[in-house]
Amino acid sequence: MIQKNHNVSVWLETAVSGIRFKPDRQAVEEELREHIEDKTLDLMRIFPGMTEEEAREQALDRMGDPEEIGKELAKIHKPWLGYLWRASKWALGLLAAAALVVCAATNDHFQSARHPLWGERATSYGTVRGEKAELGGYTFQIVGAAFLDYPEDGAYQDVYQVTVRVSSLKFWERIDPAALYSGLTATGPDGVGQPMDRATVNMDLEAGASQITVGIEQTRWDLFSREFAIYLEGHDWKENDRVTLDFHFGRGDFALTVDHMEQVVME
Amino acid sequence: MKEKLKRIWAQRPRLTRGQKLVRNLGLCTLLLLWFWGMEDYPLPTAELEFRRLERTNLLPRSEIVLAPPTYRSYLTVSKEDRTFVARDGTELTLRGRWFVGVTEDRATAALVGESISTVPLAETGPTLVPLVDGVGDHAGGYWVEESPMEGGGYRYDYHNFSALLLFDVPEETARTEMSITDEEGTPRLGRGWDLEDGRWLVGFEEKGVGDRAIGWCLDQPYTLRLYREDGSLLLEQVGTIPRAE
Questions:
Q1: Domain total for chain A?
Q2: CA of A181, closest CA in chain B: separation in Å?
Q3: Quick one: closest CA in A to B61, which residue?
Q4: Do B115 and A178 touch (CB under 8 A)?
Q5: A153 in the same domain as A38
Q6: % residues pLDDT > 90 (chain B)
Q7: Which residue of chain A comes nearest to B20, CA vs CA?
Q8: How many CA atoms lie within 13 A of A51 on its CB side?
Q9: Contacts of A95 in chain B (CB under 8 A)
């Protein structure tokens, strides 16, 4: 019996010796072993007079030449794919663990605290699909235009808010906000051009309120775009109030105009 | 319920090893992109960072006239440094990795990872570029002076300075001097170091400002004097230190 099992082991070892990726070798060896056992049982059932050793011997004979089988198996089972697959499992596991540690450490489950991949700082009003321009791989589009009408007796004053989205498919090269701040001049219905490299901030310390009345701020950002709200002082709202944004960059100049302002009554 | 879940699990689509590999590599790529984004998408070299700053500020591509020096190290092929060695051997270390480039009509100065700005090129004579970042801070650098001590050994003095780059300086220039009247009306004298190829770094020593220099010199009138080897005056240029845009 030991001798017969030894024969089976030798046969299996020879047959799988060409498979270099160990997990594959073990799986194929197990499969072939089961196959030999099935064949042995079949033979014993068909030929009741046959002993187990004889049946196993016959089964091994019928399986074929182990060396020939080994060559075929070696051709089918490519070791690099197995090693690559295993490496990918380890890499994925390590990266996932690192991501979990980062999430736990920053208490931030979808983005990092240092450079959030997306976020929102202020609200844009008066959603529109306004004028669009392209420059240097960036698309500039007006996506909001509103007259923010604050209560007369409140701490805030009425302003025009025009929102511009600057988008690019190159998520690693989103526009530098500083470029927009230094290259943009906004002209309101009063016809006065206001450079956006400076801001007028209305602060009411008693009410604890601060408001940009002339200037620009980044309101939202995601992987492929940044949105900026441009503020200009507002007085008497008219539906067809016009705001023009003049962009001046080293690579070129263009202007975007919006001539419909939605009145938004603020509380 | 448990059985039902087991059944659903057993019916999941079976992936081949190749498909599993593609899935794993895809997930790894996504996670790596996420980590890259968390660090604000750093690029492998300072020059690539500078080029990206140009693009994200919609500036035309410039020809580089000043770049962080590189040197070979034992572990890496080259390493970017912030220390320039002047022709006279003085080691000048800038705070941050600075690039200066030239386009048709402007000079671009960038502090990698921080800010980029431009100044107009001088119509005649050398162009002056203040190495001051967007908020007029964190600029400048320091040089170290080594002197022997009486009882043996050496003494090292660190001198902080506000830095300006001069380029297109005539080759025969042997010495550079620049005087500026600062915002308090006090005349200040700056010294220049030859970085070769017509580039000079001009520094105004800063005292009592710790390790930071400020953009005090912007918009201030200056007089630049270039001298030949024999001490004769080669060029005198008067102007205002340009404020970067």
A1: 2
A2: 10
A3: A251
A4: yes
A5: no
A6: 35
A7: A85
A8: 5
A9: 27-28, 31-32, 35
- Pure H helices in B115-184: none
* Closest to B235 measured CA to CA, from B184, B174, B155, B180: B174
Residue stretches of chain A with pLDDT short of 50:
1-2, 113
Residue B176 contacts A, CB cutoff 8 Å: no
Per domain, the residue ranges of chain B are: 46-240
User: Between these two residues, B54 and A107, which has the higher pLDDT value?
Assistant: B54
Over residues B58-74, mean pLDDT: 84
Looking at the complex, does the CB of residue B149 fall below 8 Å from at least one CB of chain A? Answer: no
State whether B18 and A112 contact (CB < 8 Å): no
pLDDT at residue number B22: 93
Predicted complex ipTM exceeds 0.95: no
Structure letter (DSSP) for residue A110: S
A73 and A131 part of one domain: no
Chain pair A-B, CB pairs under 8 angstroms: 95
- Please name the residue ranges forming H helices in chain A: 2-16, 22-46, 52-63, 66-76, 79-106, 177-183
> The domain that contains A220 carries what CATH number?
2.60.40
- What do you get for the CA distance between the two ends of chain B, in Å? 68
| pLDDT of res. B177 | 93
Residue B160's DSSP bridge partners are: B142, B206
Prediction pTM value: 0.79
- List the single residue in B with minimal CA-CA distance to A177: B57
- Give the length of chain B: 245
Chain B residues whose CB is inside 8 A of the A85 CB are 17, 20-21, 24
Does any CB of chain B come closer than 8 Å to the CB of residue A114?
A: yes
Query: Which residues constitute the domain of residue A72?
Result: 2-77
Closest listed residue to residue B207, CA positions, set B198, B199, B216, B220: B216
- Tell which of A26, A58, A77 closes a domain: A77
Q: Do residues A39 and A128 share a domain?
A: no
Could you identify the residue written with the tokens 């005198």? Answer: B236
**pLDDT tens-digit series, residues A230-256:** 999 988 888 888 999 999 999 999 999
User: CB A55: neighbour CB atoms within 10 A?
Assistant: 20
Q: Judge if A157 and A251 occupy the same domain.
A: yes
**A115 contact residues in B (CB cutoff 8 A):** 37-40
Record the tokens describing residue A113, joined without a space.
Answer: 């605290």
